[in-house]
Amino acid sequence: MEKHRDLQLVEWQQKEEQITAWLKKPMRSRKLRITVHSAYNYSMQSIVQELYHDQVQLKHSNMKIEGGTQATKRIDLYQQALSAFIQEDLTDEQRQAAHNIMEKWNGPDGPTPEVQAQ
């Protein structure tokens, strides 16, 4: 705009609008794809907790009734129940399926909208 100082006000405004319009044009012809990644990374335990919530709760209540564990807090007992459920009750195919879901949910697509809503 420095070299156009000798222009009249109307010409100056027209030139300014042309330059502004040129600057606002997209530089690429194709549309950019913006992906938003979640800050939360899903673990194997969080996937199993989502998918098998009722069974884990049942295992937790059975462990609470038996009382043979050394958990001092409720969360400790729940974590033990979740770990025991993964190791003892899930088949290899179910573990592999949970692992595949974990990779998908941690990827660019993220979890399903139903899971995100929770």
Element layout with pairings:
Layout: H1 9-24, H2 44-51, H3 53-66, H4 74-89, H5 92-105, H6 113-117
Helix pairs in contact: 2-5, 3-4
Structural write-up:
- This protein has 118 residues and is mainly alpha-helical.
- Helices cover 62% and strands 0% of the residues.
- Helix 2 (44-51) packs across helix 5 (92-105) and helix 3 (53-66) packs across helix 4 (74-89).
- The chain is rod-shaped, with a radius of gyration of 29 Å.
- The mean pLDDT is 77.
Features of the shown structure:
mainly alpha; single chain; 118 residues; 6 helices
What's this model, at a glance?
With 118 residues, this protein is mainly alpha-helical. Helix content is 62%, strand content 0%.
Helix content: 55-70%
Give me the number of helical elements. Answer: 6
Rg value: 29 Å
Uncertain segments are: none
Order of helices and strands: HHHHHH
Mean pLDDT: 77
Largest sheet: none
Please report the distance between the alpha carbons of the first and last residues.
Answer: 54 Å
Beta-strand content: under 5%
Total beta strands = 0
Shape label: rod-shaped
Secondary-structure-based class equals mainly alpha
